[in-house]
Amino acid sequence: MAEFILRRILQALLVLFVMTVLVFFGIHVIGNPVDLFASSECTKACLDEIMVNLGLDRPVWQQYLIFLGNLAEGDLGRSFTHGVPAMSLIWERFPATLELAVAALVLALGIGLPLGFYAGLRPESILSKVIMALSMIGFSVPIFWIGLILILTFSVYLGWLPAIGRGELVSVLGLEVSFLTLDGLRHLAMPAFTLSLLMMSMVIRLTRAGLREVMTSDYIRFARANGVPEYRVLGWHAMKNLLIPIVTVLGMEFGGVIAFAVVTESIFSWPGVGKMLIDAISVLDRPLIVAYLIFVVTMFVLLNLVIDILYSLLDPRVRLGAGAV
Amino acid sequence: MAPVLTLRGLTTVFGKGTQELRALDGVDLTVNAGEIVALVGESGSGKSLTGFSINGLLPANARITGGSIDLSGTDLRTVPAREMRKIRGKEVGMIFQDPMMTLNPVLRVETQMRDALRAHDPLPRAALRERLIAALAEVGIAAPEQRLRAWPHELSGGMRQRVAIATALLHSPKLIIADEPTTALDVTIQGQILALAQKLCKERGTALIWITHDLAVVAGIADRVSVMYAGRVVEEGPVDAVLDAPAHPYTRGLIDSVAANQPKGTRLPMIPGRMPLLSDLPKGCVFAPRCSRRSALCDSTSPPPRATGQGQTVRCHHPLTEPAGALA
Description:
The complex is a heterodimer.
Chain A: H1 2-30, H2 33-37, H3 44-54, H4 60-72, H5 86-121, H6 126-140, H7 143-157, E1 170-172, E2 175-177, H8 182-215, H9 218-225, H10 230-259, H11 262-267, H12 273-282, H13 286-314
Antiparallel strand pairs in A: 1-2
Chain B: E1 5-14, E2 21-31, E3 36-40, H1 47-55, E4 62-71, E5 74-75, H2 81-87, E6 92-95, H3 99-102, H4 109-118, H5 125-138, H6 144-149, H7 157-169, E7 175-179, H8 187-204, E8 207-212, H9 215-221, E9 224-229, E10 232-238, H10 239-244, H11 249-256, H12 296-300, E11 306-307, E12 313-314
Parallel strand pairs in B: 3-8, 3-9, 6-7, 7-8
Antiparallel strand pairs in B: 1-2, 1-4, 4-5, 9-10, 10-12, 11-12
Helix pairs in contact in B: 5-7, 7-8
């Protein structure tokens, strides 16, 4: 296990290195940020001064080496536009995104699993067919459209839920969260539901397909032939087998949800990292973009590690030994 | 002595309306306490379906439409589905064909056995464990404490089948249905499992239905044998009588196609053709199209069961009278 984790960390460092090279040089090709944020009265001399201040006058490879040196000391640079360390900006915004993503995950599992179970147990019933059709829609319809329709329906037309913002916050263990206040929950409901739709559809389909396969297996018949009660057969004997593909897929998907909650956050003006990234890209705030990408890649690596560990807990045939990569 | 299980005219169909397929047609079967009855036939003859009809674990598209299933005085057909759970495992145990598939791969042996035990016997945890260890020891598993903690994939096929047998025997059911439990095992392990099942049933007076297509297994284990073909019992009787002097041409064909029964160097006889599809059953005798003794009567009328002199019952218009000789 220890060796497995060490291996993973080494791999992660390699991935991070390659990613920084790609991003750092790639972003230089796009354009000069100074042209975008210097005021229009700024003369050539004034522009040059800004370039020297930000270190943009040096050759790219030199800039990259300086960046790597700072990175080794844990410094990801200061945002051009905000003038504060990039990581502190990310940490400030991240709890909002994490809360949104976790709420979406909870909704996806909380709604998706029971619906998938029902559809898997009664595949011929009308309700099952409705569930499956809805899950297909959940897959196919773009998120921004769903978000807008929700706002139109519940905010504009019915006036039940607020359309934008995060609402009232409470501090729990130093983390600002909104799901503990009624106002916060009302703000959270629509963006979380919007963000969860894709995952929910996936959970429904995976659960249904998995259940239908598992239910015909000999070990389920054996458990039933031994008189094991149905709730136990479904809720544990079948469930544990079902969870294996669901954990795999959701684990991958969850990273994506956090990293690219951009669209949902933009629609509902949710003050998370996704919205910050869009703003940073539009003004070519290089340190912030690079810091964010490093952050996301690290998160993906960690998530994959968590999935692998969960996986070994669910499936005894998987052992995290030296051979596992 | 009253029989443990009596099937009378059991009829099970797949599908509905005009699509209805008769997979079991009037199956009669009697099993007494301590008796081992072999159910023999090709794949698709309905032998496994008979087992699942008895304990109410038919696939969703199958249902019983006729006959009775009498388990020591209770007609299981009148027991509501919810109540059947209390009978499964307690009164009727089941052992499956492939021990690799029978145990849940993601649950420890202990969890699976404990659930089976608790299903009818809510004991405190420590007492459960003791019972399980004793049950594993009884089927000849060494170091049962460790095996209890094992995952199924850590056990060999023979070991898993022993675990399955121990689980099926936990509540000492009156009847055990064993669905080809040795087919997937090595020959040496097969012999051990056969001997074990035979010993346990005789000791406890358990009635055992042994479903198989292997006539050597039948000869080795069974007291009586029922031969099934296309959802019907075509011949039934004491194992020696049926194997030595089969009255039905199909039984004779089965015995003749066992290689060991033929002199070396001769061509192995076989039954021509294949079993009819359920959607396209012959009008009269279902075996008629493949039978060498076929007559006009066979094509028009299904033969009723009739008793032969040797204690057999056969469904044939022209039963054989000469002994097979080969197995004798």
